[in-house]
Design a protein that fits this description.
- By secondary structure, the chain is an alpha/beta fold.
- It has two domains: about 5-70, no CATH class; about 80-375, no CATH class.
- The chain has helices spanning about 5, 10-20, 25-40, 40-70, 70-75, 95-100, 120-130, 155-160, 185-205, 225-230, 295-305, 320-330, 345-350, 365-370, and strands at about 80-85, 110-120, 140-145, 170-175, 210-215, 220, 240, 245, 250-260, 260-265, 280-285, 285-290.
- It has an eight-stranded mixed beta sheet, with helices on both faces. Strands 6-12-8-9 form a four-stranded mixed beta sheet.
- Helix 2 (about 10-20) runs parallel beside helix 3.
- The chain is elongated and about 90 Å long.
- About 25% of the residues are buried.
- Mean pLDDT is about 90; it is low at about 1-20.
- The structure holds 2-acetamido-2-deoxy-beta-D-glucopyranose (NAG) (3 copies).
- One 2-acetamido-2-deoxy-beta-D-glucopyranose (NAG) binds near residues 145, 152, 177 and 178.
- One of its GO terms (biological process) is N-acetylglucosamine metabolic process.
- One of its GO terms (cellular component) is membrane.
- This is Beta-1,4-mannosyl-glycoprotein 4-beta-N-acetylglucosaminyltransferase.
Length: about 375
């Protein structure tokens, strides 16, 4: 017997009384277990044998939901933005608008560079470029023959370039070969493409204090927002744009909290193309963010596979075209996920399908002027072509 054991003499006495047996320390533990099991009904054992695997399977199916639902307990929300009120009416002069924001109007507007990494959003690109065209000096577009997840992808812009004749004299186009490194974190490929975009911007001739918009193709600043920022002096060096979030089409208005798009007064050697938070200032109500706004069901499938978060396609049936069509018409979630929020109030408030919105007021003008062609983006048209 070890010295340590003799110290626990008192506890042993208690153990020995439990089952009325004399035993060594190890054997005692075993017998205690047996004595516990003896007390449990065999039926309970069977129920447990079934319940535990069912519970584990439930965790496997819905584990993501459980962690998301409990997020308010383990995650804290990012620091809130300082939101600048945004004033606009088409009949108010630029001098007055700048003044309302606390800025002075310039004698001539800044040059504007709109730079995007293009994946496969041809229709949304048409909306974007038509919306911004009157204000943009140079359009910069980079496309890769690889998705962020290293799947080969056709050069869709190159193949449809003829549709964008109106920007041709102002277009700097770049193509980059993917690295096709299997198993690599998709964010590495994405970062690599963003560095290439910095080079492309220099080729396009960007200079100090030119305005540069950094956003995904589907984050569309409203034209008047860019016009305001190019005409006013003293705007912040980096300002985020708060956009209205839509899903699948302008029928599903999710919230107003899209914040990743930003506008920069370019500083050579300092400004880097990025898509994360880069300042604390955000301009309210500055445009639209239409995620998964595709014409064809096949594009949904492609995007779901090519997405940076591929772990979200947890089951193959998520890619079933009929399921995708049903999800779109219901306004439900393609990945069957819970809302990513930080308070129980917001999670519960956003659970279930997104309510239908029948307002097509204040949407991009080009969309309303070409409503027949882009019908699927407007309220009341959730059926998609199979493509
Ligand atoms: C806007 O201004 C134009 C020209 O000054 C004027 O004809 C029009 O009635 C104004 N619209 C509104 C809604 O005030
Ligand atoms: C992607 O582009 C690069 C550079 O042009 C080329 O070397 C590579 O073969 C292309 N890969 C595919 C899968 O098209
Ligand atoms: C978004 O903001 C607008 C204007 O402030 C408001 O009318 C609308 O209800 C908001 N929509 C959602 C879904 O939060």
């Amino acid at each position: 017997m070890s010295g340590g054991y003799s110290n626990s003499k008192k506890t042993d006495d208690i153990y020995e009384k439990v089952c009325g047996q004399q035993a060594s320390f190890a054997a005692l533990t075993m017998s205690r277990l047996r004595c516990m099991l003896r007390g449990i009904d065999i039926r309970i054992c069977i129920v447990l044998l079934i319940a535990i695997p069912v519970f584990m399977f439930g965790i496997y199916l819905h584990g993501q939901k459980i962690t998301y639902f409990l997020r308010p307990l383990w995650g804290s929300p990012p620091k809130p933005f300082h939101e600048i009120p945004h004033y606009y009416n088409e009949n108010v002069t630029m001098e007055r608008l700048c003044h309302l924001h606390g800025w002075k109007v310039r004698e001539s507007p800044r040059r504007v560079f709109d730079a995007v990494l293009f994946n496969n959003e041809i229709d949304i690109l048409a909306l974007r470029w038509n919306e911004l065209s009157p204000y943009v000096t140079q359009f910069v577009l980079l496309e890769s023959n690889s998705t962020f997840t290293s799947l080969p992808k056709p050069l869709l812009f190159a193949g449809n370039r003829h549709q964008f004749k109106f920007v041709e004299p102002r277009l700097t186009y770049g193509m980059i070969g993917g690295r096709f490194k299997k198993g690599e974190n998709p964010f590495v490929e994405e970062a690599y493409q963003r560095v290439a975009l910095d080079q492309l911007l220099r080729i396009a001739g960007i200079e100090e204090d030119d305005l540069l918009t950094m956003s995904d193709v589907d984050e569309i600043p409203s034209g008047h927002t860019i016009n305001l920022l190019r005409w006013c002096d003293d705007i912040p060096p980096v300002i985020h744009l708060q956009l209205r979030n839509y899903l699948y089409s302008f029928e599903y208005h999710v919230d107003n909290k899209s914040w990743r798009a930003s506008v920069h007064r370019y500083k050579p050697g300092k400004t880097r193309y990025a898509h994360y938070r880069q300042s604390d200032i955000i301009l309210s109500d500055s445009g639209w963010h239409c995620s998964f706004c595709f014409r064809y069901v096949s594009e949904f499938i492609f995007k779901m596979k090519a997405y940076s978060h591929t772990d979200r396609v947890r089951f193959p049936h998520y890619l079933n075209p009929k399921r995708i069509q049903d999800v779109i018409c219901k306004g439900a979630d393609l990945f069957d996920m819970l809302p990513e929020e930080y308070t129980f109030k917001e999670i519960i408030g956003k659970m279930g399908p997104i309510p239908h919105s029948y307002s097509a007021v204040h949407l991009p003008a080009y969309l309303l002027n070409n409503a027949e062609k882009y019908k699927y983006l407007l309220p009341g048209n959730c059926r998609r072509e199979s493509g």
